[in-house]
Amino acid sequence: MSLDTLRRRLAKPKTSVQLCLLGVIAGLLAAVLIILFRLTITQVQALFLQTQDDFSTLAEYQRVVLPVLGALLIAVFADLTGFKHYRLGIPFVIHRIKHHYGKMPIWNSANQFFGGAMALICGFSVGREGPSVHMGATGASILAERLHLPLNSARTLAGCGVAAGIAASFNTPLAAVIFVMEVVLREYKIHIFVPIMLAAVTGALATQFVFGNDSELALFSITPLNFWHYPYLILCGVILGAIAFSFNQNLMLIIKTFKSVNMFPRLLLAGLIAGFIGYMVPEAMGSGMSAISLAVDSPDNMQLLTTVLIAKLLATLFAIGLGIPGGLIGPVIGLGVIMGTLMSFFAQFITPGLDVSGTYGVLGMAGLLAATLHAPLAALTAVMELTSNPQIIVPAMLVISTAYVTALQVFGNRSIFLQQLDFQGLPYQVSPASEALQKVGIMEEMDENFKLLYSDDKEQIKETLAAVNSQTPLIVYDEENGYRLAEYDLSLMSDQNVGISYIPLQGLSSQATLSDAFDILKDKRSGAVYVYSQKDDKQIMGLLRWDQIRHILTIRNSLL
């Protein structure tokens, strides 16, 4: 199959073998980038840590100096690449997918790789999934750009890269698919679902090959809960929903408070705060995965868990709020596990002698994750995959539902990603019409049966109009007016005179979607655009009229 044939095939909003294979390739590219990212972190940490992500073995002064040094290096690299390239992480990826078909600026990705690795190496309380998602989308973007694929398929491949990034970070391919549909794309369509699913599987398998199939939550012992725990689980869900709202509000408060501060001193301040917290509570350093080991090893040490919870909460809020590159999901998982483990202290009075700390730790993670990110289904799926225990499903559904509804309806909580996008002024919403039309490449609907005339001679144009079929559009071109659509002007026709009207045409690349044509024509609700080859803008490939777009929106919209 030639590339031109492939591009035409991908312009259709349908599941195809070609799109699935490209999804697998995008997942593999994402996995390679993420494997390099994770290996960089583990290899550098191995130089000064006895156990990965365990900073408690370092001397006190080292725990202070390390985050400050990391913040300085992050700031210097960001300055060298230009701070305008510093918008990072999942919120930025959501914006690029919604409004730029997933095309990722390369320097943003470089900042994310270096900055995210440096933040995790130096013990900041951030997650690795933010950089992983960013780099996964970048890998897919590079693939689509190199092959000059239609932008509707490039958007799907960006979703594939995000899914591979999540799957590679947590070894949860199904939860990654749900996360993309629920949080990033915010839609469920079968022709998008299948390639994203294959990309997630590819990302998970590739990272399993390098890092193994271990899961941090597998350390927990899941104990079945009887019916008498359910009223308490509802109360736990309410508490987790309130905490999620408070977490989001305080994070946005820090972001807004330090908005006017330049990036360099802001990052330095983040390093100083992280160093102070690391000096006082070394267990609070690192990603959220380190908190899981603490909850497993010391489930009965209420004082230690409470201290680490408060310290890690502050470390996460200030690290993310002040601009340290890294993800939010990892720390939220760690915080949720600690909260759930603390809640299990009171649950032991319901069933004395039964150790339920592991079960409640997992449920705390699920509830906080669902309420903070507004991703209840992704949180439930992650719990199922990470524990491989079906007995957790019903309690998890109860906690997740209660936490989500409490945060949403009682407190009016919104997804932290959308709040960050609103603050940054990055649009993420598109109209229903544009969203439907983004799924169809312009090559799929353009009229290829047209006549092209390079002349502005009126007599020659009349002769050509008379010679062609009435259903064949005539496109004329001259240096002064550019491309125009020539038609008989019925209002000026008489027995002696035949009038000709001209409709100015704006060009679109063959990579464009129907949404791009809609944006050009929607104000006048009439007219047309011509389609040119992405290789040569003088090579006209077809014509698309407003009536064709209107027909799709009114008749076929439900199919998209």
Automatic annotation (TrEMBL):
Pfam short name (any one): Voltage_CLC
Primary subcellular site in the record, as a coarse category: membrane
Topology with respect to the bilayer: Multi-pass membrane protein
Cellular compartments annotated: Membrane
Domain of life: Bacteria
Keyword RNA-binding: no
UniProt keyword list: Chloride, Chloride channel, Ion channel, Ion transport, Membrane, Transmembrane, Transmembrane helix, Transport
GO cellular component: chloride channel complex
Membrane-spanning segments: 20-41, 61-83, 104-126, 156-180, 192-211, 231-251, 263-282, 302-321, 328-350, 362-380, 392-411
One annotated GO molecular function: chloride channel activity
Source species: Pseudoalteromonas caenipelagi
Protein's recorded name: Chloride channel protein
